[in-house]
Design brief:
alpha/beta, 3 domains, 17 strands, Dna Ligase, domain 1
Length: 410
């Protein structure tokens, strides 16, 4: 089967739900089939007619990724190649090897300098401070030397606190007992214990200790944006988290989102991105602080979020904006979503059980307008594909039953 169309070929780095989101978003508009490259063929992209997967076990090596991409370029000498990383690791590979890749690929990413001011959390909070973007108060704790105790500075906020790695490229690739994406810490003794555990697990970069914003899913928001090649934000979609993933190893991931109209947050993100001349897609984690009602930015990823199909469902299909802007050189248009629809990553009936009571009226109204599931794409649901998607749904449902907190108890 042909990849892309007569004009361009989408080449995706990653084979998970984020890659399927991009492939589906492109297929809906252009009817094209994407090529996805990754270390393993994951279930989210298996048996698909809209994305072909090539697995390369040596993709832990950046040099292997680049070498494979250059071979792919030789397959399509007469068409534009659009390179879209879907996870942090591949984003960094593309940034670090941009000069070699841009001889063959369109690479719609920021400069390495801008990336470094954003992807490292300590640098990101300094950037937010400079541009007066609301964010939680934070303290940076440098790594302890071998055999040394972590030094905890005086905190300008009280316990409990959040502790999380500043470097989100290295940390996800580490494996150790007791690893969590972020840590909720009750006191100074526990904080020292967490820092020791993370350091012993092989992480030797800064940790961020941050004020804890109280609340459940009702305070959690996400945003996905696209800024054109001239550094102007053109698309933005804000989502209210309905169901977070409560598996300790998956904290920060979401299983249900409703799109919402949040003009203040949209204005903050526009102010930040335009001020630094950002180009490409971005994914923000945000919390709406119940103490002052202000949406505060926690972090940014230099790519679309894995859950970004909620934006497409609400009317802002961000991926084609990249194609219009970078492939065809056309005006991608301006899109800010205001309609509320429901996006889910597991069976709808499971989300009903685990929706917090305070959000249920909004979720019901959004679901009546539209309910969307990234992997349930009718043109791609062959028998094998349908069974695969059902198995994925079952996996998420069982994980939710094991770790989740039922909305009826909240």
């Amino acid at each position: 089967m042909m990849y892309g169309n007569d004009d361009f070929v989408p080449v995706l780095l990653g084979t998970g739900v984020g890659a399927y989101n991009v492939a589906r978003s492109l297929h809906e508009v252009y009817g094209v089939r994407s090529l996805a490259l990754g270390r393993a063929a994951l279930h989210e992209t298996a048996h698909s007619a809209i994305v072909g997967v090539r697995a390369h076990r040596d993709f832990d090596s950046a040099d292997a990724v680049v070498a494979t991409l250059l071979k792919v370029a030789e397959e399509f000498p007469d068409r534009k190649l659009l390179l879209i990383p879907t996870i942090e690791y591949y984003t960094n590979v593309a940034l670090d090897h941009r000069e070699a890749l841009e001889e063959h690929f369109i690479v719609p990413l920021v400069s390495r300098e801008t990336a470094d001011a954003l992807i490292d959390k300590s640098a990101f909070y300094a950037t937010c401070e400079k541009h007066q973007i609301p964010h939680p108060r934070s303290v940076i704790v440098p790594p302890a030397g071998a055999g040394e105790e972590p030094e905890i500075p005086d905190l300008p906020f009280s316990f409990p606190v959040i502790a999380k790695p500043s470097n989100t490229d290295i940390y996800p690739r580490l494996h150790f007992a007791g690893k969590e994406k972020v840590y909720l810490v009750d006191d100074a003794v526990e904080l020292v214990s967490v820092l020791k555990r993370v350091n012993a697990g092989g992480y030797d970069d800064d940790m961020v200790v941050q004020e804890f914003i109280p609340g459940d899913e009702t305070v959690m928001r996400v945003a996905n944006t696209y800024s054109d090649r001239n550094g102007t934000m053109r698309s933005c979609s804000v989502g209210q988290v309905v169901m977070a993933d409560h598996d300790p190893t998956m904290v920060g991931n979401n299983n249900a989102i409703i799109s919402v109209d949040d003009p203040d947050l949209t204005a903050s993100l526009r102010s930040l991105l335009d001020a630094i001349g950002y180009t490409g897609t971005a994914n923000f984690d945000v919390m709406k602080d119940p103490r002052d009602g202000v949406s505060k930015v926690l972090e940014v990823n230099l790519r679309l979020g894995a859950t970004a199909y909620y934006a497409t469902a609400a009317g802002a299909n961000i991926v084609p904006a990249i194609v219009e802007d970078r492939v065809y050189g056309r005006d991608p248009g301006d899109l800010v979503t205001t309609d509320s629809v429901l996006w889910i990553n597991l069976p709808r009936w499971v989300s009903r059980i685990y929706t917090p009571k305070a959000l249920r009226p909004q979720v019901k109204a959004a679901a009546r307008r539209r309910t969307a599931h990234t992997l349930r794409y009718h043109p791609d649901l062959t028998a094998k594909r349908f069974i695969t998607v059902m198995r994925i749904d079952l996996r998420y449902a069982l994980s939710t039953f094991k770790y989740g907190r039922a909305g009826m108890n909240q």
